[in-house]
Amino acid sequence: MKKLGLIAFVLLVQTSFAQVNRFVYQVTMKPDAADKNSTKTENAYLDISPEKSFFYSENRIKRDSVMKATFQSGGARGFNRQQMEGLRSSINYSIEKDKKAQKTVFKDRIGRDVYTYEEDRPLNWKIASETRKIGDYKVQKAETDFGGRKWTVWFTTDLPYQDGPYKFGGLPGLIVKAEDEKGDYSFDLMKNYKIEDFPALNQFGNTIKVKRDDYVKQQKKYSEDPMAFMSQGGGGPSAPMRIGGNQNPAEMRKRMEERIKEEAKNNSNPIELQ
Asked: Is 18 exposed, middle or buried (0-12, 13-18, 19+ CB in 10 A)?
């Protein structure tokens, strides 16, 4: 009986360690360079396991769930465009950190395809002696220059994770708050809980691996001529655009052009300036 009890205990411990810890951050952004009074706020998830972590928008999971339910209940004709518009996100990227390999992989959609690159710039932290309390956590201050912005973060050793939102990590604890010097972007930890596993996210189009510099070049080309990207071959985001197939193609193209121009305007003050 003692052996059975020990085995049950070991299995329980293994199960608890197998779970993924989800940290919910409130992300506050001023992505429109022409209107710094315009602020957008949404939640993002940082899911952490012993092997890796994954940072992405909460709205992405919700959109995936709506699309899955739509296709299961009748497909195109049951599509609720208004509901999907309400779940649009300013966080279109995702970031995966491989802890064993010490790699940070960034993914973002440009046109029809998903571009992915491995981050090639180290985070050089300057840890200060200053401490304070944020919520239930005792936190310590650290600073870094990254992506053309000066960042101040507050991390806690109360939580056993050397991780944080966006590409941030590598400090002696979990980042509870991060904000750039201009106040254009901030990440604030709101809550955390356990989930069984990392979610499977829908992905349309091809995945193209590039160097970071090539991704930046493609981004620039897209901002100058977005429709050229949308007319290239591949399955990309045009797949969801085909929902409701009885629409006029010219009207769909016009709506797409307007949406892309609006997205470009709303991303004229990106989180990385360099």
From this structure: exposed
